[in-house]
From TrEMBL:
It comes from Acromyrmex heyeri. This is CFA47 protein. It comes from the Eukaryota. PROSITE patterns: CH. GO terms for biological process: cilium assembly. InterPro entries: CFAP47_dom, CH_dom, CH_dom_sf. Residues 183-314 form the Calponin-homology (CH) domain. One of its GO terms (cellular component) is cilium. Pfam families: CFAP47, CH.
Length: 689
């Protein structure tokens, strides 16, 4: 009995104790006569209270609210003590019922008491929402102005969703279209369901996503409904799904993306019901119902469900947004404070919704590139008793304010030589994932302006590249923090290059930087034999060299820069498919080789092509320098090779050698193209015979 008083207190408040007076605080007597007399007085008082609130309970007798044993004792006591008047006999009948008949009547009376209590103190308050929550005319303009203010912490437009819905329902001409046998509260709830269904049925998410094979069959469309009852019109769960999605849009993608818009049988209705119950359980709605009970509805149960939805769903509307700004792959922590205005301890169950990629944890939210982290933090106040609190919904939004570099790698390689290596990539996330690789030549700074291309696309282009990735993605196992990336690096031009690789996965993105540093290498060794015959006829051995001087020697310079050519072709081969490579191999090291490269490249020119496009030049002029500043060799300032394509051919460079040159002289000769894109280094050995 005391538990029912607790129920009344939770619904009515402390006023119930005021009405019951001393009876609500008195301890239950141990003596049977006193105990039964006390309980019957308490029942009478409660029934009087419910009758005063409009409950239809005049047919309920207090004696049938007892358990059967107390009922028998009360009959025996009345029969044996009727003359003494120790018991209030006006409250007790002398009829002795069988257990079966008593249980049947007792259950019916308790059901009547429970339902009438629900009607008076729960259902009846629904209609009052129209007056409590609708804005007064004098405040409409103020609230409208507040709702248009953009704020990073509050969400006024979303938080007013329920109030706007009630105001619109109250002004709808169809509000009173429900059957006359419905009370005003039920009519209001039906109008509430109809309003949200009409709002949601035209949204993009409520579309038929079935795969239709028959070309004559069309996609289903959510039709208009006259929602006039709490059983048949709701049995396919679509209306209840619509009203749930109106207040909890974060459930749409996860729970409501595969619905039957027009259910054709019980199986399809059950499918929708399972999706709906799964969503309710996910957010801890606090109402126990099975999918089959939705498909085969009981009007009273569904009415209670709709009342519960009307009261609880507005608490799932986000009112606050918390933004997390941090650099890419870094972690930022914020503290969220929730106040409790009551004296009771309230326990909250914390849930993260729409956070399948684990961008956020309760303590460590993270952000990632191009996929802004966005999740809902639900504080379920109705999941853990004994005192329940209002649900709190907070939007967690992660933004990148700086594209930081997770790791830097430097690859040093000699000019025109290919280096094959494996990089150990440190992954800043712990979850298992496959990371797609993107590449950019620009230093990442702002996500909005970053231009990057997926490596799969770059690899398909027939362009030799300084940096070539031998794989399209990296795979990270659960709990691992490293992955291997196989790369090929070839310094095609004599300058340093920097590349940035962006690794993208659902778990988060990160960026690494690869620096390619070139080093000098010797192209070839050239041996020149010369003979000292006669005398030097040059007037000035440094500046006035004559063409007919016997001390002019010929240095054979290779026409083709074979290392450069071979480096370009080897990096080009990496872009070829097996069939293309088979065709290519037939013309390797021939005149057609370069033409094929140019033809396969077509007009696909990017920064990688600009680094080696000079390989197609026919005539090249070089600047000539020598390592020894006091060298006895007098070199031309410029040297031109008319055709740099032929292999195994040399072009003579006329060099004046001083008579004082020692018999064995070695120097390093450097040829640099005028555009500084090609670099040749030869070791010259001068042997005097």
């Amino acid at each position: 009995m005391l538990s029912f008083i607790d129920v009344l207190e939770s619904i009515v408040g402390p006023d119930i104790h005021t009405y019951l007076g001393k009876l609500s605080k008195q301890l239950l007597p141990e003596n049977n006569i006193e105990r039964i007399n006390y309980v019957l007085q308490l029942y009478n008082k409660i029934l009087d209270f419910l009758l005063s609130q409009g409950a239809y309970l005049v047919h309920v007798s207090p004696q049938f609210l007892l358990n059967y044993d107390d009922y028998l004792i009360s009959i025996d006591i009345v029969q044996s003590n009727a003359q003494r008047n120790n018991l209030n006999t006006s409250c007790v009948s002398y009829e002795r019922l069988s257990r079966q008949l008593f249980d049947s009547r007792s259950k019916q009376y308790w059901l009547d008491v429970t339902l009438q209590t629900y009607k008076c103190f729960v259902l009846r308050r629904i209609h009052e929402y129209k007056y409590w929550m609708s804005p007064r005319p004098s405040k409409r303009s103020t609230e409208y102005r507040e709702s248009t203010v953009s704020s990073t912490s509050s969400l006024p437009k979303q938080s007013k969703l329920h109030e706007r819905a009630i105001e619109n329902i109250a002004n709808l001409p169809s509000y009173e279209l429900a059957p006359d046998d419905r009370c005003s509260e039920e009519k209001f709830l039906l109008a509430w369901l109809r309003y949200h269904y009409e709002q949601q049925r035209v949204r993009d998410w409520m579309t038929d996503r079935r795969i239709i094979v028959n070309p004559q069959e069309k996609q289903d469309v959510a039709e208009y409904r006259e929602i006039q009852n709490f059983h048949y019109d709701l049995s396919d769960s679509l209306v209840l799904i619509a009203v749930t999605a109106a207040y909890c849009p974060f459930l749409i993608d996860e729970c409501f993306s595969n619905l039957y818009i027009c259910s054709r049988n019980k199986q399809e209705m059950l499918h929708n019901a399972i999706c709906l119950v799964t969503a309710w359980r996910k957010i801890r709605l606090g109402f126990i119902i099975t999918p089959m009970q939705l498909v085969n509805p009981n009007q009273v149960q569904i009415l209670m469900l709709v009342v519960h939805l009307f009261q609880v769903l507005p608490t799932y509307v986000p009112r606050v947004k918390v933004k997390f700004n941090c650099s890419l792959s870094e972690i930022v922590t914020k503290q969220i404070s929730v106040s409790n205005p009551t004296d009771n301890i309230v326990n909250y169950l914390l849930l993260l919704i729409n956070d399948d990629n684990h961008f956020f944890t309760i303590l460590k939210p993270e952000s990632s590139l191009r996929l802004n982290a966005y999740a809902y933090l639900i504080l379920c106040g109705r999941a853990i008793g004994s005192h329940f609190g209002r649900n709190q919904i907070i939007i967690l939004e992660g933004h990148i304010d700086n594209l930081g570099i997770a790791s830097k790698y430097t690859i040093r390689s000699k000019l025109y030589q290919i280096v094959e290596t494996n990089l150990k990539i440190r992954v800043p996330y712990q979850n298992a994932a496959e990371y797609d690789i993107w590449m950019t030549d620009e230093r990442p700074s702002n996500p909005a302006t970053l231009k990057m291309t997926q490596w799969r696309e770059l690899r398909a282009r027939k362009i030799p590249r300084r940096l070539f990735l031998n794989q399209d993605l990296i795979v990270v196992a659960e709990g691992e923090s490293e992955a291997h990336l196989s790369i090929s690096v070839a310094c095609i031009a004599p300058k340093q290059r920097t590349f940035w690789l962006i690794f993208q996965a659902k778990t988060g993105d990160f960026i690494i930087q690869i620096n390619s540093v070139w080093q000098k290498s010797i192209n070839d060794r050239i041996v020149v034999q010369w003979t000292a015959q006669g005398e030097c006829i040059c007037s000035n051995q440094r500046n006035g060299v004559r063409d007919t001087c016997p001390f002019n020697i010929s240095v054979p310079i290779p026409s083709c820069n074979e290392q450069f050519r071979r480096c370009v072709t080897e990096m080009f081969k990496k872009t070829l498919e097996p069939r293309e490579y088979l065709f290519w191999s037939k013309y390797s090291n021939t005149y057609i080789e370069l033409r094929l490269i140019k033809w396969l490249m077509r007009s696909d020119i990017d920064s990688a092509a600009l680094e080696f496009v000079h390989v197609f030049n026919t005539t090249v002029t070089y600047k000539v320098t020598i390592s020894d500043k006091s060298s006895p060799l007098i070199l031309p300032e410029r040297f031109t090779i008319q055709d740099v394509r032929p292999f195994n051919q040399q072009v003579p460079m006329i060099v004046h050698i001083l008579p004082t040159t020692p018999p064995l002289y070695e120097a390093t000769l450097t040829l640099t193209s005028l555009d500084d894109k090609e670099f040749r280094v030869y070791t010259i050995d001068c042997l005097r015979s």
